[in-house]
Each structure stands twice: as C-alpha cells, then as structure tokens.
C-alpha cells in the first residue's frame, strides 16, 4: 500500500494505492465524513485480480480542503480529472454512501470512463430522516480529543462500529490529525460537511438513474442506520434500479449496517464484488464471440 498525491482540478488529492494484479483498475470513493482508508478490508480481498485505488475526496483526509465546492457534481468532475491524471481510460467505480451517489452521477456524466459500477448501500436522493441519524458520525468533526485513545474510546462505543477491529483502528487513526501534544482532531471541517449536506437536500441523484449505461451491482445493508425508513437506498428502490439497468444486480449483505458492510461483513461484500465482476467479464467475452 502506497500513499500518493496528484494534482487535479487545481487541487492536491491524496490517493491510497493498494497495488494489485490485473489489467483493470478499481477506483473506490468513500462516504460523507469518511476517508480512503475505509476500503482497507475490501481492497485486501480484491487486489489478487485488480489494481485497487482509493481517493480522499476534496475536503477529506489528506486531500486539499478548499473553502467551497462540496457537491456531488463537483466531486464527479474532480474524479474525472483524477482518472485522466492517472492515465486511465476506464475504471470500475466503487462507491459507498455519498460515494455511491457520486458514482451514479459520475456514470451519467462520463459513461465511457466507467466499465462497471458498484454501489454499496447508497445511490439515491438523500432522505431527510437520514441526516439526524448520521449525527454520531458528524459530531466528531472538528472536536478535539486529548489523546487518540480517548477518541477511539468514544467512537468504539457507537453501535455501528461494534465490535471493534484492526480495520476500524487504522481507519480512525487516519481520520484525525495527530498534534505534537498528543491530542487529535478530525481532518475535515463542519463547514465542509454542512455545505455537502445542504447540496444533498437538492434532489438530483434519482434523475441520473436512467442515464446509467454500465453493468451495476447494488449491495444493500438491511440494518443501514437501525431505523425502519432511513436508508441511503431502500430495498425496493435498489431492486427497481437493478432491474432498470442492463446487467444490473441487487444483493443483500446479510446482517450488515451502513458501516459494517465495509468493516465487518467485508468477506461477503468483497466476494459479491468479485463474483459480479467475473460474471460481467464472462458476459463480455460471450458477447465478443457472438
């Protein structure tokens, strides 16, 4: 695993290059308050077949943090420039939560740059009730903790992240700036998250569904935010979207919530991704032979 910086759209972006084998590249996009290291567990299980990259979106992690520009469309434009800077013609785009929304919009804006799309517990317009339930994740933003141990103790008590494991440890370690006095503070800012949320309340994701032209796998977390209606994509809408897309597929990740789908149920999540991409590859080979 290597950390890299590249310039795109006039900003410095941090990229985690997990390495990997295979001619195709998977590009992973994280969620609202997340960072690129949320993909560690999944990436470890994909690199034997693919090259895997993950980016910190503008304003997150170790990427540059401009004063404005926090919208799904702007992120899609950033990713377009990043892919060009990486000299890639196409990528398999994998997005979680906000990253899935960005994946939908990116695929509608730049269809030729995506060979397959993987939407992990997201991909439709934001429901109002979701915002309140994301508060535990948002509250840690800009809050300073005396030690990383104190920070870890607090986040490890959040039900979404139980049980604690090494993947969560590394993810949250990367989530904060480690100050000289031992204190830590989130690398992102509330102003950034608030601007993002304001823009997310303006419906646009669902309008892009009909423009998706690539095989798409939708992975769904049935326990999402532990609420009966607060989904980043509902089961009904996920199934309908999969049926709408040529080569679409909907899969439930058993027992998963919105975060454990990456940090705990990663074996099944990665397996479903690998199986689906194999099916797509075989389908393309059959189409070529006809």
Automatic annotation (TrEMBL):
It comes from the Bacteria. Keywords: Hydrolase, Membrane, Transmembrane, Transmembrane helix. GO terms for molecular function: hydrolase activity. Residues 25-161 form the AB hydrolase-1 domain. The chain crosses the membrane at residues 91-110. InterPro entries: AB_hydrolase_1, AB_hydrolase_fold, AB_hydrolase_sf. This is Alpha/beta hydrolase. The lineage of its organism: Bacteria, Bacillati, Bacillota, Bacilli, Bacillales.
